[in-house]
């Protein structure tokens, strides 16, 4: 009983001491949250930044763009993150939330992420147009002026030039930013041409009858599932195709192969911009923020020969990079 | 920290003095005391520690408040010239400097403020320390003066211990309350947009079509797409498959280990089985997605079946493997608790061992086994990682184990860590699902408890 | 039992038939007995089979990650700005690049230089810096320092790259392969035990990534969990089992605790986010908060196991203690608790093992983070082993797949060790009443 009491007493004291110790300590490393798509790039920069400067290595969290924005816009002060990564632009609602809480975001566009449709080597070979993709994946299509459920079973049903293989597409869930980008860049574009009546649902909804399989956010898992199933097509980020080029083949879209050059040149149609947002209020409060932004927007980092390109980031055009880098260095606040 | 050490030292001294005091009062013969000397010691120990701790907590709060308010008063000119976060950082940095820390952007004002705070802090520290030690000493003298041979200190000490025990059990209840509250707030917001009835009984789950923004039609549209029945069905299907694997294997393993296996085999086999429960679920997730699912798909194709690459079967199978040890070790305990005399009696009537087990032991152990199975079911329902990686996200309403289904937990995870805004209906739906899950497991547990209470047989 | 005793009135008439029937029946019953026994054994063996299948899959993938190919790099440490004092901060990039090029004197063009740099790990300057900082007497001399090759070169050297494929489909080009082969011929490549994997924190380069940071994070987190859940859990169990009156309230608490054991773990993360981060303002990503969340999560396991252990102590012990005048608290703390201790310890260790393998709740409180610096205190940002596994599994580089498997093996080793301790405790002190 004596020992028990002693242990619990010391545990109490210890807990108390720790609680008081935390309150006084100031944070001296940058805190980054946000998108899991930008995470691999942000971490690479953070690591170099920690190695090559006297600042602490930033802590990067993968929370998803939405979760990151929520934390970022929650207010100012050490308890909140300094930078949030996003695989989409900040939304008006989020911007308003930020403004209400006294947060001034500085937007930095860092590059492109190609979204590819890949399949296993030796598996199905596709040469698609965006209209084909729409025809294969839209939940409802317009036929003879009437909206009917999409009943295409094989790719050949969509376009007789395609192989008669069952449509099986592994893709991201509706909560994912990749999915939003895919819908916007492929489905809505193709839909705008194919459909007369402008019904938004008709353009954005993806099949739920098994032709499209929501496969979670882990792109490696999609890659491995594709290997196991040669007839399936996966939707994932370009860097996974780049790293797994021995096992995977990217489908051509509108006649363009998903290669580094084609995406950078803007020929390959499905690519989206990646961003990070800096909390201007924290510059001068948390050490190293300006230097981190400078490291990220350095030519050796995000240029065509920079180390982020090796990691699969598609660089912005040269002129854009210069303009964005100088805006970022000046911490020009985002206006919406 | 110093104060804490001093307090502990003081309390320890009090313990020993009071203990020897009681022995001295008893004239060296401890048996004439009402309570044993240890209790007199603890009596003083608590009187020193508890009031002083309470005072410490209150006084240090007041001191902190006083310091920060006088800091902002003294440096009001500086603070007003700064913007909101800069001002906050100013105060923070001053505190950091005062406690000897390093800050990012030191300037003269901050250093002056730091020195000001440091001066106040040391004054406050001595004041608080003096107060706390004073209270501790007062407690000590009070307790010391109250010690007498007939003093019922044991009761007093035991009362404190009992309160400590109760406080510990309350933590569990508080956790539950916390969970319920953190779920309910967000759920209420969700149910403001989607009616409870549509959510619970709708058979169409497709958050991709959820509408955002105001408008009278919004609620109707959202009700159409947040029907959770497919999720419940998927959860049930996977749980059912898992139990089909875990229940027979776990139960038979428990029977074999408790009634047939030699002591040596049992000693090795039991812990080895338990390793299955210790394997992290992430590992099971990989195993299910990369080894089991493709294998099942391959076999299915050989015999001409179309199998989805994230079939419910794969996830359920692997989850079943994971819960085998839950079933087996819980049932093992229950089977062991059936007294030997029942087995002996059955053997005496000429029954073989298996007959004894089937006709005597299992019926006697049934309530316990049922509750073990129900616990395993609630475990399976709550399991996340395996299904996240292996089961996919397609909300199909089906009982075909070869098709892809989704579960409640998978949806919670994907809805929460996605890229959507945090107050969109999609994210709020996760909380509502969490609440429903909580209620389901609660119901299962109540049933399990009732079963045990109602049908439990007392053999001792 | 299945067969009713034969009716004697019938048995008299047909004694021989009866004997034959009886022996068939006995045979049948014995066969059923054997079958039943076989089912039991089969069940145990099936479970074993699953375990072996699981372990062999994981270990098979992990083995290549435990060794790594190092190149012997001759480094000139003659830069006049390099002193023993600044060796730990010195920028070795130029020195290292010069050393790498000195291995291939016939390469001079820009593309060639890039190629040479590409076959070494981009973490080479960091490795060299660490070595030099540890041996400051090297400064001013020429040293042969073993440095890791790049992850793609390592995969090639391990034979995991299919060189029959066209160049564009490999991550390592023919030119790079030629350079690596050249190094191999000159005997400058050596396959060693992968120490970096065990000593480094997280990194975006597969060859520089290690599990040390996650391991320390797990350790810190678990100690907080243990410190909180063990005393609270045991004391709560004592109250509920020994003192609490049997009424609706305690029934409610009991259901409650069983229910907590089955609440999906991610919900605990939501609770931690709301209470510890938003309300109590503890720092994000800290093992302190992770430990507290996991403590709440393991509490029910500890309470349930402790109650079972207390219940297993026979009432006679309590009655004897009460009979000679001990108070109820004395009875429990002096007699019942020591006897229940092995069971309680086992339950606690198993609870801890569960906490060690947990990922989902930590997602919500910011521990799914990329933390390069090794954590030193419970309030430093940190991550834990299972989360590290989860993150590595999501990186595109192929080198990380082996790391993932290797980290899983390490995690499993810890879990098996903890389970083994629990089992040893149980068998050492287990008592049958």
Explain what the structure shows.
The complex is a heterotrimer of chains A (336), B (460) and C (433). Chain A is an alpha/beta fold. Chain A folds into 2 domains: 28-112 and 272-329, D-Maltodextrin-Binding Protein, domain 2 (3-Layer(aba) Sandwich); 114-271, 3-Layer(aba) Sandwich (D-Maltodextrin-Binding Protein, domain 2). Chain A has helices spanning 2-24, 39-52, 65-72, 92-100, 130-137, 155-158, 177-194, 200-204, 219-228, 238-243, 260-265, 289-296, 299-302, 307-310, 318-329; strands at 31-34, 59-61, 83-86, 105-120, 127-128, 140-143, 146-149, 169-171, 212-214, 233-237, 248-250, 252-253, 271-279. In chain A, strands 1, 2, 3, 4, 8, 9, 10, 11 and 13 form a 9-stranded mixed sheet that branches. Chain A starts with a helix and ends in a 7-residue tail after the last helix. Chain B folds into 2 domains: 2-151, no CATH class; 228-455, MetI-like (MetI-like fold). With 460 residues, chain B is mostly helical. Chain B has helices at residues 2-25, 37-74, 76-81, 84-98, 108-146, 153-193, 196-201, 216-225, 229-260, 263-278, 281-302, 312-337, 340-348, 353-382, 385-390, 408-416, 425-455. Chain C is mainly alpha-helical. Chain C folds into 3 domains: 8-63; 66-201, no CATH class; 212-429, MetI-like (MetI-like fold, Orthogonal Bundle). A 3-stranded antiparallel sheet of chain C has the order 2-1-3. The model of chain C has no long low-confidence stretch (mean pLDDT 83). At the A-B interface, helix 1, helix 3, helix 7 and helix 9 of A face helix 2, helix 4, helix 11 and helix 16 of B.
């Amino acid at each position: 009983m004596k020992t028990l009491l002693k242990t619990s007493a010391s545990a109490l004291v210890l807990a108390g001491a720790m609680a008081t110790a935390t309150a006084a300590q100031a944070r001296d490393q940058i805190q980054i949250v946000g998108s899991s798509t930008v995470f691999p790039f942000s971490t690479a920069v953070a690591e170099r930044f920690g190695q090559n400067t006297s600042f602490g290595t930033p802590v990067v969290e993968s929370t998803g763009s939405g979760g990151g924005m929520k934390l970022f816009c929650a207010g100012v002060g050490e308890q909140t993150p300094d930078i949030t990564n996003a695989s989409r632009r900040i939304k008006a609602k989020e911007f308003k939330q930020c403004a209400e809480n006294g947060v001034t975001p500085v937007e930095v566009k860092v590059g492109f992420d190609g979204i590819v449709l890949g399949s296993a080597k030796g598996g199905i070979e596709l040469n698609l147009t965006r209209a084909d993709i729409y025809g294969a994946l839209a939940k409802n299509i317009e036929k003879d002026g009437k909206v009917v459920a999409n009943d295409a079973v094989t790719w050949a049903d969509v376009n007789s030039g395609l192989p008669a293989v069952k449509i099986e597409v592994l893709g991201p869930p509706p909560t994912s930013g990749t999915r939003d980008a895919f819908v916007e860049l492929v489905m809505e574009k193709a839909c705008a041409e194919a459909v007369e009546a402008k019904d938004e649902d008709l353009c954005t909804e993806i099949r739920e009858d098994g032709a499209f399989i929501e496969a979670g956010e882990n792109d490696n898992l999609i890659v491995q599932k594709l290997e196991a199933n040669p007839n399936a097509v996966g939707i994932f980020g370009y860097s996974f195709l780049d790293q797994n080029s021995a096992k995977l083949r990217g489908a051509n879209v509108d006649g363009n192969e998903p290669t580094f050059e084609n995406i950078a040149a803007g020929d390959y149609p499905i690519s989206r911009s990646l961003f990070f947002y800096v909390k201007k209020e924290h510059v001068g409060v948390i050490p190293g923020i300006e230097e981190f932004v400078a490291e990220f927007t350095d030519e050796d980092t995000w240029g065509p020969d920079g180390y982020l390109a090796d990691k699969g980031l598609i660089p912005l055009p040269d002129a854009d990079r210069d303009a964005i880098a100088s805006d970022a260095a000046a911490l020009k606040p985002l206006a919406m | 920290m110093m104060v804490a050490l001093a307090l502990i030292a003081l309390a320890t001294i009090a313990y020993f003095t009071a203990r020897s005091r009681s022995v001295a009062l008893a004239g060296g013969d401890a048996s004439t005391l009402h309570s044993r000397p240890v209790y007199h010691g603890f009596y003083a120990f608590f009187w020193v520690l508890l009031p002083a701790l309470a005072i410490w907590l209150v006084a240090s709060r007041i001191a902190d408040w006083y310091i920060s308010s006088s800091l902002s008063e003294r440096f009001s000119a500086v603070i007003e010239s700064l913007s909101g976060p800069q001002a906050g950082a100013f105060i923070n940095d001053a505190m950091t400097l005062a406690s000897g820390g390093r800050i990012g952007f030191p300037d003269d004002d901050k250093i002056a403020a730091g020195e000001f705070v440091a001066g106040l802090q040391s004054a406050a520290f001595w004041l608080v320390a003096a107060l706390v030690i004073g209270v501790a000493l007062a407690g000590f003298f009070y307790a010391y003066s109250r010690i007498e041979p007939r003093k019922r200190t044991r009761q007093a000490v035991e009362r404190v211990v009992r309160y400590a025990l109760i406080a510990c059990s309350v933590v569990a209840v508080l956790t539950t309350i916390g969970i319920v509250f953190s779920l309910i707030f967000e759920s209420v917001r969700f149910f403001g947009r989607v009616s409870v009835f549509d959510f619970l009984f709708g058979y169409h789950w497709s958050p991709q079509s959820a509408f955002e923004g105001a408008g009278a039609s919004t609620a109707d549209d959202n009700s159409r797409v947040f029907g959770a029945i497919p999720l419940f069905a998927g959860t049930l299907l996977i749980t059912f498959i898992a139990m089909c694997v875990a229940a027979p294997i776990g139960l038979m393993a428990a029977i074999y280990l408790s009634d047939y296996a030699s002591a040596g085999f049992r000693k090795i086999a039991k812990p080895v089985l338990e390793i299955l429960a210790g394997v992290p679920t992430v590992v099971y997730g990989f195993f299910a997605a990369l080894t089991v699912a493709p294998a099942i798909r391959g076999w299915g194709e050989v015999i001409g079946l179309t199998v989805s690459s994230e079939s419910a079967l794969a996830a359920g199978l692997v989850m079943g493997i994971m819960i085998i040890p839950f079933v087996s070790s819980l049932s093992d305990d229950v089977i062991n608790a059936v007294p030997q005399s029942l087995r002996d009696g059955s053997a005496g009537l000429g029954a073989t061992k298996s007959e004894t087990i089937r006709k005597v032991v299992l019926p006697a152990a049934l309530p316990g086994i049922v509750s073990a199975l129900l616990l395993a079911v609630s475990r399976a329902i709550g399991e996340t990682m395996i299904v996240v990686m292996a089961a996919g996200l397609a909300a199909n309403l089906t009982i075909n184990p070869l098709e892809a289904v989704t579960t409640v937990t998978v949806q919670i995870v994907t809805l929460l860590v996605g890229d959507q805004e945090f107050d969109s209906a999609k994210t709020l739906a996760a909380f509502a699902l969490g609440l429903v899950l909580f209620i389901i497991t609660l119901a299962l547990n109540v049933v399990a408890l009732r079963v045990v209470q109602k049908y439990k047989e007392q053999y001792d | 039992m299945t067969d009713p005793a034969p009716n004697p009135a019938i048995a008299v008439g047909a004694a021989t038939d009866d004997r034959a029937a009886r022996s068939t029946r006995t045979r049948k019953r014995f066969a059923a007995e054997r079958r039943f026994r076989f089912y039991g054994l089969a069940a145990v063996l099936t479970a074993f089979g699953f375990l072996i299948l699981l372990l062999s899959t994981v270990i098979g993938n992990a083995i290549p990650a435990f060794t790594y190919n190092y190149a012997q790099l001759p480094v000139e440490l003659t830069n006049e700005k390099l002193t023993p004092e600044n060796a730990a901060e010195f920028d070795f990039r130029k020195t290292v690049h010069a050393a790498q090029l000195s291995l291939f004197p016939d390469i001079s063009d820009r593309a060639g230089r890039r190629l040479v740099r590409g076959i070494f790990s981009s973490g080479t300057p960091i490795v060299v810096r660490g070595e030099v900082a540890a041996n400051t007497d090297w400064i001013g001399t020429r040293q042969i320092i073993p440095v890791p090759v790049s992850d793609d070169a390592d995969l090639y050297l391990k034979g995991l790259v299919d060189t029959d494929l066209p160049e564009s489909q490999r991550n390592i080009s023919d030119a790079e392969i030629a350079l690596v082969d050249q190094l191999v011929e000159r005997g400058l490549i050596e396959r060693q035990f992968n120490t970096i994997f065990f000593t480094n924190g997280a990194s975006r380069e597969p060859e520089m990534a290690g599990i040390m940071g996650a391991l320390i994070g797990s350790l810190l987190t678990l100690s907080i969990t243990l410190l909180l859940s063990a005393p609270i859990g045991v004391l709560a169990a004592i109250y509920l089992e020994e003192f609490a009156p049997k009424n609706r309230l305690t029934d409610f608490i009991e259901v409650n605790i069983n229910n907590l054991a089955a609440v999906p773990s991610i919900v605990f993360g939501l609770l931690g986010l709301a209470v510890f981060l938003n309300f109590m303002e503890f720092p994000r990503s800290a093992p302190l908060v992770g430990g507290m969340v996991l403590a709440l999560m393991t509490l029910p396991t500890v309470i349930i196991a402790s109650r079972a252990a207390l219940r297993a102590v026979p009432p006679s012990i309590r009655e004897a203690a009460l009979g000679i005048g001990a108070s109820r608290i004395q009875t429990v703390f002096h007699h019942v608790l020591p006897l229940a201790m092995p069971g309680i310890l086992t339950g606690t260790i198993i609870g801890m093992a569960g906490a060690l393998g947990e990922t989902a709740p930590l997602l919500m409180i910011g521990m799914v983070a990329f933390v390069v610096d090794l954590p030193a205190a419970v309030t430093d940002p940190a991550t834990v082993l299972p989360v590290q596994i989860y993150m590595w599994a999501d990186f595109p580089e192929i080198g990380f797949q082996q790391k993932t498997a290797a980290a899983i093996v390490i995690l499993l080793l810890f879990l098996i060790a903890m389970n083994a301790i629990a089992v040893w405790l149980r068998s050492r002190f287990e008592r049958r009443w």
